[in-house]
Each structure stands twice: as structure tokens, then as C-alpha cells.
Design goal:
By secondary structure, this protein is of the alpha+beta class. It is built from eleven helices and 15 strands. The protein has a six-stranded mixed beta sheet with strand order 13-12-11-14-10-15. A five-stranded mixed beta sheet has the order 3-9-8-7-6, with helices on both faces. The longest helix is centred in the middle third of the chain and has 21 residues, at 256-276. Keywords: Acyltransferase, Transferase.
Length: 408
């Protein structure tokens, strides 16, 4: 089960966003595996996608539709089949799905963005299965279906991931609600596997895209479960503009920062939820690196630690084997690192000072931290003022079992 993560509650609808789910039978029988999102006229959409060169067919189609400049009116999301590694047939299936949605909603096919998640390289019959349930899906569209949609987009996730936040701006209440799925194959190079965030704020144009980029940099681009990047990663930010405020079109607008911060907080919650629900995870591990020459250096050290199987398995075993931490720090590519200036903490317990075991550290103190579900790790490189934080999890027996059995 997910580490310190409860099922969604108090999820707020976003004016101008309606959702619906259905059982399309794409891979499994008896589970909801199709999600339709309908956006009110005038909504604006920004998105980021995986940089994996083997990106899935729906990624290519969604990118193309956004590049054409049509106003996005709908998103269609299926689980059970990634429609990746499927060549021309996969592209045709993604495009056909968009046409089916467009026909049902009365919009242009270019106004529909397709998304898929599931097994890579499987034959596709998506368009036919989606078309069969779309009429019922359209009838079921409603603003209060966020939790159902968050559950319908899951694959190996053990819990739906959805949250809301509200702020006041010029006397008007602004709502931000988001959902995400992801559990394994997580080391995003832009976003998580699939994430959708909506707001009724009138965030338009370049300000919308910039807001998404800045939010991603401090959330989904700071997580890792296993170091693997997906073929299907996508994150979408939707702004319906239904809140009664003048549009925010520039990042220099005094209101932009408040909106960005609210969206970033939702994105961070969702990103951390993905790590807390990492396949087989039993520990949630925030890693903060300070004292670096620049942020890139700090991130390099953090990810080297987060991707070490030796460190991840030690955390699973609740073993304060801090020598593994030093080995990872020392091999992170900071060639001129003065190890005599390095300090390391597990929680509030300093285990390393001046590059060696802290004289006040005891194995019992380290063990007391390691048995906890959430174990913050902090490293001071002692060479500058830069810092950065990422979030990861441990590596358990269940991770191997889940991924060995995934296609069976």
C-alpha cells in the first residue's frame, strides 16, 4: 500500500470541466478504463510530454493537435494499453479515437487530445472499444467525477491520486484540482506518467505554458521511483477562465505568482503521491542537497543517491548503512568535491561530519530514524549556496514481483 497516503477526499469541481468514466474492456474485464474530459468553450490548455524517442502514438497525435493551434475541447484517456511501439497502426488508432470523440461532442478532431497508459507494444483495437462506450460516457459527463477519473486512469497504482486547493484573489475564489497516475517506470523528463490539473482561473497564452513549466520543475521533474522514463508521460494544465477575473496573460502580472504557486502546490502533492505509491514502496524518502555550487550539481548528487539500488534496499531493510550514502555522493560526478567538508543527516540525526562519522552518532540513533515510514535525507556539500530537493522511495521485494508479473 502507498506510504502515508489516504484515498482522495474533499475534491472540488472546477467550473468548466466535466468528466466521465466507462468500462471499455481494453485489457481487463470489469474495471473502468476509459476517461473522457470535456472543457467548456474558451478554455485554454498547455501540456508537456515525454522526451523518450520511442514516445507513444497518442503523444505524437496530441503534440500535433496542440501545434495546430485548435482550441482544445476534450481529452480521452485509456488505460490497459499504452499504444506505444505500435507504428502506423497505433497512430491511426489514436487519430480514430479523436474522431470518435469529436463526433460525439460536436467539435473538430484536432480539438481532442488522446492519452494512453498500460502495456507497451501490444496490438491496438482502441478506437473500436472506445467508440462503443463513448455515447454513455458523454451522457455521464459531470463536474464531480474527479475521484472516479483518478481511479480509472490507474495501472499498477494501489490508490487514486487526486487533490484540490483554493485561493482567494481580488475577492474571487480560485479552484485548482488535479489528478495523476504513476507507480513504476518513474523518472520523468518533463512530467509524470499521466497528470491533469485544471483551474477556473483565467490563465491564458504564454503565461499558462510558463506556469506549467515552472510547476513541473518543482514537482514532477523532482521525483524518481526506479530511474526509468516512460514512453507515454504527459502533463496537462487546463484553465477554463470561468472565475470572474480579468485574464492573466503575462508572467509580469502581479497575480501570476500566486496562481503559479497554487498550481505548483497541487503538482507537488500529486508528484509526491506518485512516489508514495511507488511499486512495492514501504518508505518515502525526501532527499535535500545543500551547499552546492549550483542547482544542477545538487540534483546530480540527489539522483545518484536516489537511483542507487544499494541505498534503496538498505532503506527497505531499515538498515542505517551510511557508507552507501557516502559512496553515492562520492561517485556523483562532482570531481573537485572536498569530502572533508561534507555533512549528512538522516532525519535530524547527523551521521557524517567533516567527511567522516559524526562523533556523536550511534547505530541506535540511525536505526530509530530508519524504521520510520518517512525518512528525510539531507546532505551539505560544503562548497556553495545552491540547494535542491527530490523525492524517492525504497526498493522492495514487491517491486520485483510486480514488474515480473505485470503482463501476466
Amino acid at each position: 500500500m502507498a506510504v502515508g497516503l489516504d484515498p482522495p477526499r474533499n475534491i472540488l469541481p472546477v467550473a468548466g470541466v466535466r468528466l466521465s468514466v466507462a468500462e471499455a474492456g481494453i485489457r481487463y474485464v470489469g474495471r473502468r478504463d476509459l476517461t473522457l474530459i470535456h472543457l467548456a468553450e474558451g478554455s485554454q490548455v498547455a501540456a508537456v510530454f515525454t522526451r523518450n524517442r520511442f514516445c507513444a502514438a497518442p503523444v505524437l497525435v496530441a503534440r500535433h493537435h496542440l501545434a495546430e493551434g485548435s482550441a482544445v475541447r476534450a481529452l480521452v484517456i485509456n488505460t490497459g494499453n499504452a499504444n506505444a511501439g505500435t507504428g502506423v497502426t497505433g497512430l491511426q488508432a489514436a487519430e480514430a479515437s479523436c474522431r470518435e470523440v469529436a463526433e460525439q461532442l460536436g467539435c473538430a478532431p484536432g480539438a481532442v487530445l488522446p492519452f494512453s497508459t498500460g502495456v507497451i507494444g501490444e496490438p491496438v483495437a482502441l478506437a473500436e472499444k472506445i467508440a462503443a462506450v463513448l455515447p454513455a460516457c458523454v451522457v455521464g459527463l459531470a463536474e464531480d467525477q474527479w475521484e472516479a477519473a483518478a481511479a480509472a486512469i490507474m495501472t499498477t497504482d494501489t490508490i487514486a491520486k487526486c487533490c484540490s486547493r483554493q485561493i482567494e484573489m481580488d475577492g474571487v475564489t480560485i479552484t485548482v484540482t488535479g489528478m495523476a497516475k504513476g507507480s513504476g517506470m518513474i523518472r520523468p523528463d518533463m512530467a509524470t506518467m499521466l497528470a491533469y490539473i485544471a483551474t477556473d482561473a483565467p490563465l491564458h497564452g504564454a503565461a499558462l505554458q510558463q506556469c506549467l513549466q515552472e510547476a513541473m520543475a518543482q514537482s514532477f521533474n523532482r521525483i524518481t521511483v526506479d530511474g526509468d522514463t516512460s514512453t507515454n508521460d504527459a502533463c496537462v494544465l487546463m484553465a477554463t477562465g470561468r472565475a470572474a477575473l480579468p485574464p492573466v496573460t503575462k508572467v509580469t502580472d502581479p497575480r501570476y505568482g500566486k496562481l503559479r504557486d497554487s498550481i505548483t502546490l497541487v503538482a507537488q502533492w500529486l508528484a509526491q503521491a506518485v512516489v508514495r505509491d511507488g511499486e512495492g514502496a514501504t518508505k518515502f524518502i525526501p532527499i535535500r542537497i545543500s551547499g552546492g555550487c549550483d542547482e544542477a550539481e545538487c540534483l546530480r548528487v540527489a539522483y545518484r543517491m536516489a537511483h542507487s539500488p544499494l541505498i534503496k534496499t538498505a532503506f527497505f531493510a531499515s538498515d542505517p548503512n551510511w557508507g552507501r550514502l557516502l559512496a553515492a555522493i562520492g561517485s556523483a560526478g562532482v570531481d573537485d568535491l572536498d569530502v572533508a567538508g561534507v555533512q549528512v543527516w538522516l532525519g535530524d540525526t547527523r551521521i557524517v561530519r567533516d567527511g567522516a562519522r559524526d562523533p556523536g552518532y550511534s547505530e541506535a540513533a540511525g536505526q530509530a530514524v530508519m524504521v520510520q515510514e518517512e525518512i528525510p535525507v539531507r546532505v551539505d556539500l560544503g562548497r556553495g549556496a545552491a540547494e535542491a530537493q527530490i523525492w524517492t522511495c525504497d526498493l522492495s521485494y514487491d517491486y520485483v514481483r510486480i514488474n515480473a508479473d505485470y503482463r501476466s
